[in-house]
Amino acid sequence: MQCHYCEQYKPGLPFRCNYCGNYFCSDHRLPENHACPRVGGPKQPGYSDVPSLQEKYAKSHGHFGTLPGMGRSRFRLGYPGVFSKAERKHILIAAGLLTAVGLSMMAFTIPVSIDPLFLIIGVIGFLISFFGHEMAHKLFAQRNGMWAEFRTNTYGLILTALSIIPILPIKFLAPGQITVVGDANRELQGAIALVGPAFNIVFGTVSIFAGALIGLADLHYALLFIGAFNGYMALFNLIPFMGFDGLKAFEWDRTRWAIALIGSIALLAGGAFLLKAFP
User: Fold this and answer.
1) What's the maximum distance between 2 C-alpha atoms anywhere in the chain?
2) What is the pTM of this model?
3) pLDDT tens, 135-191?
4) CB under 8 Å to 271, separation ≥6 — which residues?
């Protein structure tokens, strides 16, 4: 049987966790070895006594008792690095696909010849766009006591791969998502969802300002396009539909969702305008 944590088929009997119910190999059978989201408390490895977003929100609104979804942060990831072994495989595949989509869009849109510097700036920009978006989700969720890891999904991978074709008018930029497990109320779910597009809006704005100030053609066009790309990425993820960040953000706070939506549209439109205004 495949280990739920490392996704490897190892010899020996599978071990079922009494807390989360998943099956693990002998190396990851203990709750602390697979960062079990159902186990927590000050005696558990990785526990951090940090006020969660639910607790801060409740206290700011005059609540000081125990509310549903409110509590201290529980398990912290005990991985040797930022990503678990299984997560690294998923996130590298997704990052490669998204970068390929960005490069195909850039080559089809920008009226300059492709050279090594142009490609390097593009690859770096797209990787920052993707990793920044997903890490914003992940780190914010972990900071508030949730278990969070990136996972691809089959339909997302297929649609993102098809988006590499330059002539397709709509690009699908969601090869996967951060899976969050834990006791999160609507406020925390909405905040986790919104922080990813917020990163794209901030990073895209910085890229556009930098591109507008730089006269070197390669850097100028590449940075402007990266800014517009981040606007599109934020706008796409803010769609209030099942599976997208926009649905949870919309259900949490429509005003914040609308501000982010307007910001992403302005970023996309501003980047597209500058790309045409400075040939």
Assistant:
1) 65
2) 0.74
3) 999 999 888 878 788 999 999 999 999 999 988 888 999 899 998 877 778 898 999
4) 204, 208, 224, 225, 227, 228, 229, 231
